[in-house]
Amino acid sequence: MGIGMRKYGLMGLQCLILGIVLMGCALHKDVAKSEGLSFDEQRKFDYFYLEAERLKAIGENDAAFDLMSRAVEIDTTSAAARFFLAPYYLRLGRYEQARKDLCYAAEKYPDNYWYNAVYANFSQQSGHHDEAIRIWSRLLKKNPDKSEINSALAEAYTAKGDIKSAVACYDSMELSMGMMEPITIEKLKLYEYMGDREAMVSEAEKLQRTFPQNTDYMRLLGDIYLEAGNDSAALSMYDKALETEPENGYIYLSRAGYYEKKGDSIAYNNEIRNALINRHIDVDTKLSIFSTYIVDLMKKNQELNRVDSLFAEMLEQYPQEEPVHRLFGMYLSSRKEFAKAEEQYAFAADLSPTNPENWLQLIGLYLYQEKYPEVIQVGKRAIQYVPDQKDIYMYVAVASAQTKSYTEALEMLETGLTYVDEGDGGTKSFFYGQMGDVYYSAGDRDKAYEMYDKALLYNASNIPVLNNYSYFLAVEGRDLGKAERMSAQTVKAEPDNATYLDTYAWIFFKQGNYSLARLYMKNALDKAEAPSAELFEHYGDILFMLGEVDEAVEYWQKALDTGSESADLLKEKIKQKKYIEK
Questions:
Q1: What is the spatial distance between Cα 93 and Cα 113, in angstroms, rounded to a whole number?
Q2: Which end of the chain lies in a sparser environment, N or C, as judged by fewer CB atoms within 10 Å?
């Protein structure tokens, strides 16, 4: 059944306390009155206190805080003033001061519901469960008719790990309020946490007896029977629920769980289908069911043809539901049926053009298949609907660069860059790095290096930029010391990356340090799953410089056989048995 336990933390603590305190806590007017002050002191205190309240009401919180702080300086015994300041201390991160002030107010006025409720909540949310239990228990004695206190006390006991006491609190609520689903569900969660299956069954049976015609409670009881191992009772309860409400599609899901447990795949598939075609289940729930079902079948690698027929039925039932087309597209992509997946994502994008996910999935499919004209066409269309999606500009830029439309690629990158948050240095660095690559491909090396410098300004550890920058400098024989330093960073970061090892080796080659070049190039060849022609050629060049001519020719031939782009130059090297610089 998976009834999860609550989790607690400091997140939301400020909102919780501010929500109670700032809404005006129905404080008694005499709470703010002070004792032991002279007439003038009381007048000053009253002025600061009331003016702070007024300023808070109109949103002037900084001024309100300053004035109330001055009021507390006059009278440190004012619970109302200190209670007022607590949420401001929370905003400032002064949790201990906030705790002291809330505690002071609660202890000075133990009958004040709001002082104590806020302090108890603070204690509970900040992990002081014993203190929360003490305050909630005190409040409960004074306000036995307030069921929410019992609920809060139960949560405090749960957070502490005292599950039996938490259950007792819910039992008390049940005695005063009668049997209610929310109370029962909380008790079931606790019993599940305790591993008490018998108590879970008993509780669910009691709920079902109290509301004998409620099919949801029948189904809940069936699920608990199934989890407890009483399979026949579970199926009987599901059947009873269906007999009572034949159109309740959720019951089919529970029955599917029963048949799955029994290993009856045919019956399981039928129940899933019954759930998916049931018009009383909302489409989001169906998609959640369907997703789980698909993943399960794919893990087992069985009966995937059923998924296609179920999708056909879903699309017939929901032809205009964008999530159905998107899910079908994801499924088809996972099966590498890219043409069909493209069609479904295109449908989804047309149905919901302002949802960037569909555009990104469709563009990603085209990019994966290296369909660059399609990336450009669809990307430009997507930008009309979701102009703030920086990733789309990036994808179109990549495709444009691949088609040698460098000006368009740069325009896309520059526009996409305007949608990157100023504080997002990593993404800015990525964009500038891409611009550097485009400029280099376009033949403008100085501009490329300028962009790489900008990229490293935003992220000095941008490894792809460090590699490309250092390699291009090595190819030119330019700033080799700088190139070596940058390349060393990449090898240190990813010592098994053959590309980075190749760059590092080639820098040493250009520096004339052929022994080190050989060491790193050999390492690159060893690390590469399928060594490229460039790696073979570089290694041959290094071997030649070390006087190992025959071995050099052997690696040049390997480069040629692998399909090098510099085939003519390689043939000449092999023919002359000599290194020839490009």
A1: 25
A2: C
**Is 379 buried (19+), middle (13-18) or exposed (0-12) by CB count in 10 A?**
buried
Q: What is the DSSP string of 349-402?
A: HHHSTT-HHHHHHHHHHHHHTT-HHHHHHHHHHHHHH-TT-HHHHHHHHHHHHH
pLDDT band at residue 36 using 50, 70 and 90 as cut-offs = confident
Nearest by Cα to 468 from 446, 490, 494: 490
Residue at 54: amino acid letter = R
Per DSSP, the chain holds a count of helices (H) and strands (E) of 32, 0
Task: List the structure tokens of 413.
Answer: 């990158």
The amino acid occupying position 290 is: F
φ, ψ of residue 179 in degrees (nearest 5): -75, 125
What does the mean pLDDT of the chain come to? Answer: 88
CB atoms within 10 A of CB 30: 7
Stated pTM of the model: 0.63
> Any idea which residue has 């979701």 for tokens?
386
Neighbouring residues of 192: CB distance < 8 A, sequence distance ≥ 6 = 1, 3, 200
Distances, alpha carbon 178 to alpha carbons 157, 315, 386, in Å: 22, 45, 52
Question: How does pLDDT run across 313-368, given as a tens digit for each residue?
Answer: 888 888 999 998 998 999 899 888 999 999 999 999 999 999 999 999 999 999 99
pLDDT at residue number 339: 94
Answer left, alpha or beta for residue 352, where phi above 0 means left and psi between -120 and 50 means alpha. Answer: beta
CA 236 and chain centroid, separation: 41
Q: How many residues does the chain have?
A: 582
The Cα–Cα gap between 293 and 198 comes to: 30
Shortest CA distance to 375 belongs to which of 345, 348, 337, 415?
Answer: 345
- Yes or no: say if 452 and 483 are a contact pair by the CB < 8 Å rule: no
- Work out the number of other CB atoms within 10 angstroms of the CB of residue 304: 13
More confident residue, 290 or 123: 123
Average pLDDT score over residue span 470-497: 95
Tens digit of pLDDT for each residue in 408-461? 999 999 999 999 998 999 999 999 999 999 999 999 999 999 999 999 999 999
Of the candidates 83, 21, 57, 36, the residue with the CA atom closest to the CA atom of residue 68: 83
User: Which residues have a Cβ under 8 Å from the Cβ of 564 and sit 6 or more positions away?
Assistant: 533, 534, 536, 537, 570
